[in-house]
Fold this sequence. Notes:
With 517 residues, the chain is of the alpha+beta class.
Amino acid sequence: MQFRISCTVLLASLAALLSFSDIVVDAAPVKRNAGMVSLPLKRVEARSGVHPQVMYQQHINRGHRRFARMAGFPEPSASELESNLVRRIVSAGEAELAKRYNRGGINPNSKRFDRAGLEKLSSFKDLEEVEGADTLIAALNVTADADEDNVNNAAVNAPPIGDGSGATDPNAPNLTVAKKPSAPNSLGLDIEANDVGYLATVQIGSPPRDFSILMDSGSADLWVGAEDCQSEEGGGCGNHQFLGPESSTSFEVSNTDFQITYGTGAVSGKIVRDNINVAGLKLNAHVFGAASVESREFTGGVSFDGLMGLAQSTLSNQNVLTPVEALAQDGLIRDAITSYKISRLEDGKNDGVITFGGLDTSKFDAKTLVTVNNVNQLGFWEADMPEISVDGKNAGLQGRTAILDTGTTLVIAPRDDAEAVHALVPGSKSDGQGGFTVPCNTKAQIALQFGNRRFTIDPRDLAFAPLSDDPAGDCLSGISSGQVGDANAWLVGDVFLKSAYFSHDVTKNSISLAKLV
């Protein structure tokens, strides 16, 4: 079996293995006749009570940083991202205060809110020094605690998808239990809150214990929290499952350090090895990371215990094979394929699933399946996107590509592209800050083409977040503009992926998409 895994990764993997002791703990592989295995995913939602404009800018900022890393371009600076969030808060505050606080409250026509003053606001320090800031911040349900390492979470610790975040305990009452799947080697998807992050449960250690793991197609490392985990802000790493010698007799730690920085958040620790069970498939002494230091995005009220990156291992900061590559190398699955059916809570199907080793044909219309080459040279999943249309009308954007990423919430498009698309959406407007609004009841059919097939974004996902309780009012658009990266590349996240079956194959370096059933 041939894999697209570099000699560097293979040699680094061997070196990591040699850095451990000679202890071998038996975890006999279990082969399945279907040649693939599926895991349940659990959705995670950001905390409630966050103003939609603030949440929107946080997602835009995360997308910009993530996009820059994927495209190999310089990231936007910390001050730039902080300025974007401050401007968003001020912009939202103008409308909020005009509506709620005119009587005996802050004067929305004061210097604090005029456009000239807005242009001068570039940091939370500036914001805090302006008269009325406390009331504004309270009105928007945010706090101004910005710092250089976490600027896009400065207003509130509202977590991103896939970059390390979440919101609630998986045992919370808002967990929606999945129906029993009909496909072989499949586990149902449990849904937590609304559609923001996607989790699967794997077993790690001896004796095996359940770890809730966030699945991310835009990174390539597996890690869980270590027993000695500390938050970078001090204290422990939250109410999570942790791994180490006290809980697992098969746990081994090396002297090799690792560090990973995501679009939001970072972790660091030691390379370890231990037994991993992926829906009955046992990886004996798999090499991965145990995080001894986690940033606030991973410690503050999140519901997962670690993260599994499923891009190609050429991206691995740990220089080891991803679990799906290791499963294929050991012959436990036919090919290093990962497939996703990301469900939508509103549909009531509760059938989201991640499948290793193949495609779950019960989830998509086989007649609509298209397979295209991966055009990314770094190890992300990127496909040519020859056409973008709105209600069947070509937006005139040729030569575009799309990085398909389960770890991004929005669709991030180059500024001119985002404007061209929204110009074809009736009732849409630019907010002047890289975002757009669309009518909450929009029926616009925005379609992205891959191969010879168009895949339409569900209008419910295009209307990303309402700005009021009026169902006929405006919603923030699920497509925003990005000002970093390749001028022709889009970062396509879950706003699109909830409407398509998505699969990627390391062995063939290809991407497949199909329409859901």
